[in-house]
From TrEMBL:
Signal in keyword set: yes
Record's cofactor remark: Contains 1 topaquinone per subunit.
EC class name: oxidoreductase
Provenance organism: Apteryx mantelli (North Island brown kiwi)
Gene: AOC3
PTMs per UniProt: Topaquinone (TPQ) is generated by copper-dependent autoxidation of a specific tyrosyl residue.
Full protein name: Amine oxidase
Start and end residues of each Copper amine oxidase catalytic domain: 304-706
Domain Copper amine oxidase N3-terminal: 161-256
Alphabetized UniProt keyword annotations: Copper, Metal-binding, Oxidoreductase, Signal, TPQ
Lineage of producing organism: Eukaryota, Metazoa, Chordata, Craniata, Vertebrata
Residue stretches making up the Copper amine oxidase N2-terminal domain: 73-143
Needed co-factor(s): Cu cation
Residues at the catalytic site: D375 (proton acceptor), Y460 (schiff-base intermediate with substrate)
């Protein structure tokens, strides 16, 4: 053995010993727990955001007591009210007027009076109606003001009222006690009916003209995932009378045939004159419709953690994340809403809020073909689900409760109805690797703040996200999941969708979502500008016989509401932005661009008798002058009377000039859903995601993300393994700790009310 070989062996032996010692040392040392200290965020809010805060349970108690004592009529609790009673439908925070809020936020003005919107059903009056009151001031109300006529130009007739849960219960009772017993043989032998074997799904709207309250109820086997188990029976109930003993069946549908009532269906059945399509009884777990995993848990999926604690702060309803700050709230009807959204202290948007979610269905069954769900009237906020740690939002997200008072005289708590978290999206926000001239790498991880709620509206679940990026962009995103709504497969059903199980037709439908975007870019007054590209034919200056098709920038100020209303079929300039009165360093008007991600088509033909009720869906984008009396693009009363819409968005567009004015963008986004076999048991979020972005356009002098503390830059000459040079190299030191996850809890099944 020569010296060289001895040396190599010695080195190898030493290396092995060293490696062993390392392993032993590491194994012997218990990993530390991540420091869960909140990084100091500069929160200059001083409680100002509370001007947008949802009502507290204490405030709700005060308001209910005030209403009970001061309306001069007895109020029945809406959870057990008859249509002929008076009751509180819901109360919500009355958003103060913008001018007043801005005086308070920006001008040192007084804090606006805190007021409440109280919506009452007056069934026990000579002229039954829905009345909206503004009640104030909180915390101890002393006045109420009827604002119905001022808001809607007239009284709200009682038939427009959204259907209470108790009304559905009363209808279920009517079907059970008076309707089904009139077809005993059919119900027993064909449907295998007993008291609990059927689930009922409502459709809406309810008829063909104002005043109608005639609803097709679709019957399903009452098993887990019942939405996929239609039995072929649908019943049209006229529940327009305030005297529930007057309710009646108007029509019955079974397996492609229509009958006057259940008695006629029974007699046809007994005489053997109907075609029976008996559905096999499904087990309680629904079999194919069950969401129970078909595989046991195996290796744990990846999770994110915050090695040094959250980098955002949430105080009351105010959030601060890096250069961002905003206030949030949850409307009973329309769901999440954000206010006073600022970047680097400068307001970019006054309000961004969900307005409506619409679904228009086709089918050869009556319930399916007449369904046009307007989810706001059911309550997108009210039906916010309790979010499940680690699935609905990251395990370590911040979970917030919401409180609401609807269809009751006591408030309810929506546990963990909202989550806020920072998410490392696992890709660069920007990067460059230079291998030319000089050698370096520069990059910034795309880590964004997300505010999320998920509304479960009957069969569907909508995941609502607002995402704040480090480059000053905001994204609004909605993803659809949950169960599809289905029809009983018969006849020419395949014209209306795909067959997805034995007797189940996945019915074709649209999803359309509307948002209100009240941008205030560099001040309240903005103009709307369109930039796009056109080709111009030019002769090459250096070789005039040659032609060049040269792209050029086209610019246009859209100066009227009509010019700024883009119907779905119309061509919209690819860059549309809210322009400020100020300019950036390079002399361009500072702006924020609206970029829409949508696959929506026609909502309904404009000739439809209900089109005006959903006329917001005509437009992928419509920019109007902001008006206090145009706060929302629709109304909860449109669902049950779309033929005389209480709010018709199309009327907002009346060719007013929109240059240098306070403007609102109404954005519609959506997609067509043709359910297919992979929608069983659930529709997946993948690919069913739409929304829009608000992106800076010449607003800053350069990309503000360059000021992010997360930036990474090193050259070939630097020691990029050193923590001081490259913060990612600090990871083994700073982030080698065990995440301190709280125990899993879930309150979603407490105090649940069954419909
Ligand atoms: Cu769908």
């Amino acid at each position: 053995m020569n010296m060289k070989a001895v040396l190599i062996l010695l080195v190898l032996a030493l290396a092995t010993i060293f490696a062993l010692v390392c392993v032993l040392l590491t194994r012997g040392r218990a990993p530390s727990i991540c420091q869960h200290q909140r990084l100091e965020q500069e929160d200059t809010d001083n409680g100002q955001s509370l001007v947008f805060a949802d009502l507290t349970p204490e405030e709700m108690v005060q308001v209910v007591r005030y209403l009970q004592e001061n309306l001069g009529v007895p109020l029945v609790d809406a959870s057990r009210a008859l249509p002929s009673d008076n009751c509180i439908s819901y109360i919500d925070m009355q958003v103060p007027a913008k001018a007043e809020v801005l005086r308070f936020l920006d001008g040192g003005g007084a804090r606006p009076t805190r007021e409440v919107l109280a919506v009452l059903y007056f069934g026990n009056q000579p002229d039954p109606n829905v009345t909206e009151y503004v009640v104030g001031p909180l915390p101890t109300p002393t006045y109420h003001r009827d604002v119905t006529v001022q808001k809607y130009g007239g009284k709200v007739p009682y038939h427009r009222r959204p259907t209470l849960a108790v009304e559905y219960k009363q209808i279920a009772g009517f079907l059970r006690s008076q309707v089904f017993p009139t077809a005993p043989s059919f119900m027993h032998q064909v449907i295998e009916y007993n008291e609990t074997s059927l689930a009922v799904m409502t459709t809406a709207p309810r008829g063909f003209q104002s005043g109608d309250r005639t609803t097709w109820f679709v019957l399903f086997q009452n098993v887990s995932g019942f939405f996929l188990h239609p039995v072929g029976l649908e019943v049209l109930v006229d529940h327009s009378s305030l005297d529930i003993s007057q309710w009646a069946v108007s029509r019955v549908f079974y397996n492609g045939q229509y009958y006057r009532d259940m008695a006629q269906l029974e007699s046809a059945y007994v005489q053997g004159r109907i075609s029976v399509e008996k559905v096999k009884k499904a087990p309680r777990d629904g079999d194919f419709s069950s969401m129970k995993p078909r595989a046991p848990p195996a290796t744990m999926f990846p999770v994110q953690y915050e090695p040094q604690g959250p980098r955002y702060s949430v105080r009351n309803n105010h959030v601060v994340f890096q250069a961002w700050s905003f206030a949030f709230g949850m409307s009973v009807n329309t769901g999440m809403r954000l206010f006073d959204i600022r970047y680097q202290g400068e307001r970019i948007a006054y309000e961004i809020s969900v307005q409506e979610a619409l679904s228009v269905y086709g089918s050869n069954c009556p319930g399916g073909m007449s369904t046009r769900y307007m989810d706001g009237s059911f309550g997108i906020g009210r039906f916010s689900s309790p979010l499940v740690r680690g699935v609905d939002c990251p395990y370590s997200a911040t979970y917030m409760d919401v409180h609401y008072l609807a269809q009751s005289q006591v408030s309810r708590i929506g546990k963990n109805a909202l989550c806020i978290f920072e998410q490392n999206l696992g890709s660069p926000l920007r990067r460059h690797y230079s291998n030319l001239q000089s050698f370096y790498y520069g990059g910034l991880v795309n880590s964004a703040l997300i505010v999320r709620s998920i509304a479960t509206l009957g069969n569907y679940d909508y995941v609502w996200d607002f995402i704040f990026y480090q480059n000053g962009a905001i994204e609004a995103k909605v993803q659809a999941t949950g169960y599809m709504s289905s029809s009983f497969l018969h006849g020419d059903g395949l014209r209306y969708g795909n067959r997805v199980w034995e007797h189940t037709l996945g019915t074709i439908h649209t999803h359309s979502i509307n948002y209100k975007v009240d941008l205030d870019v560099g001040g309240v007054k903005n103009s709307l500008v369109a930039h796009d590209m056109a080709f111009e034919m030019a002769r090459a200056p250096w070789s005039p016989e040659q032609q060049i098709e040269r792209p050029r920038l086209t610019k246009k100020v859209l100066d009227t509401e009509d010019q700024a209303a883009f119907q779905h079929q119309s061509k919209m300039p690819r860059y549309i932005y809210f322009a400020a009165n100020s300019k950036n360093k390079w002399g361009h008007q500072r702006g924020y661009r609206i970029q829409i991600v949508s696959f929506a088509g026609e909502h309904v033909p404009e000739t439809s008798s209900m089109e005006r009720a959903i006329s917001w869906a005509r437009y992928k984008l419509a920019v109007t002058r902001r008006k206090e009396e145009e706060p929302t693009s629709t109304s909860i009363y449109n669902q049950n009377d779309p033929w005389t819409p209480t709010v018709a968005f199309a009327d907002f567009i009346n060719n007013e000039t929109i240059t240098n004015e306070d403007l609102v963008a109404w954005v519609t986004t959506g997609f067509l859903h043709i359910p297919h076999s992979e929608d069983i048991p659930n529709t997946v979020t993948v690919g069913n995601s739409v929304g829009f972005l608000l992106r800076p356009y010449n607003y800053y002098d350069l990309d503000p993300s360059i000021y992010s503390h997360d930036g990474v830059f090193f050259t070939s000459e630097q020691d990029f393994t050193a923590c001081e040079i490259n913060s990612v190299a600090c990871l083994p030191k700073k982030a080698s700790c065990l995440p301190n996850f709280p125990l899993f809890t879930y309150d979603g099944f407490q105090n649940i009310s069954r419909l």
